[in-house]
Amino acid sequence: MTLPGPVASSVEKALEKYLGTSGSILSASPVGGGCINPSAKVVTESGSTFFLKWNPSSPPEMFGAEVDGLKTLKKPEALRVPEVIGTGGSGAHEDPGWLLMEFIPQGRPGPDYGSRLGRGLAALHSAVDMGSEPGFGWTRDNFIGSLNQSNDPCDDWPTFWRDSRLEPQLRMARDRGHFGGKGGKVLENLLSRLEEVMATAGEGGPALLHGDLWSGNFYPDSSGEPVLIDPAVYRGTGEVDLAMMELFGSFPMGFQEAYDEGRGIPPEYDAFRRDLYQLYYLLVHVNLFGGGYVGGSLSAARRVLKQF
Predict the structure, then answer these.
(1) Is 212 among the residues known to form the active site?
(2) Which of 182, 224, 225, 253 is the most exposed place for a label (fewest CB within 10 A)?
(3) What are 234-277's pLDDT values in tens digits?
(4) Which helix (H) or strand (E) element contains residue 288?
(5) Could you tell me the CATH number of the domain that includes residue 28?
């Protein structure tokens, strides 16, 4: 495949600085899996391989936010995270934003893959150094898919979940013509009762979250070690990452037992909080992909309310 000219030129300069030798690109081949950015495996004349993604219409801060997330997840050394090599571009059509990283080939999960992922995620959620701001949220806003994700710090988890997660996505969805009538009233009812619904949520204090942990954002490397990619980092409760893992799939074998041993999964998660946290991602999908996710959003909200 052919890389955009400005991207290729800037990336070769970044590679030369990183490698200490020529960074000339010999080839670039497409890498599938993402729905927001084109991506490629880049091979240099020296035979080194790297992962590159770019976007000709991205917000200028999008890849910077991802770099922040990748470096944050890498710091505790709980799970493998690709090294960031460089980033650049303004996001304008003539100067696409780009992000260059270590290329980690996907391998096959071994028999202990799930348990390794469970132990690693529990350790990540327990990481002490989670940024300079206290409470829930993060030091900067970032993105969930291509949508802005507000991370204004907040001392109260239910307030954060309402004001920075559910309400903005519901407002956006309504602006796009969804959740009128009875459906909207279901979600309004849930939001009005969120203090009651989340009375015991977040009692363990903030956890460092990946933030977008669907099955496409973790995989085994060639040795079977779990790898995390494409984060939307903030401080929340670990149940949020668990809920996203289960939204379109299930935990890998051995994961739940290992995570529960390392950090614990409260009974409220199975009872109703899985649905409560999945609701955010379902609303995000409504705003990214349309009305096909409206029914799932309302079903999740009704299951939560049924417990109260």
Answers:
(1) yes
(2) 182
(3) 999 999 999 999 999 999 999 999 999 999 999 999 999 999 99
(4) helix 274-289
(5) 3.30.200.20
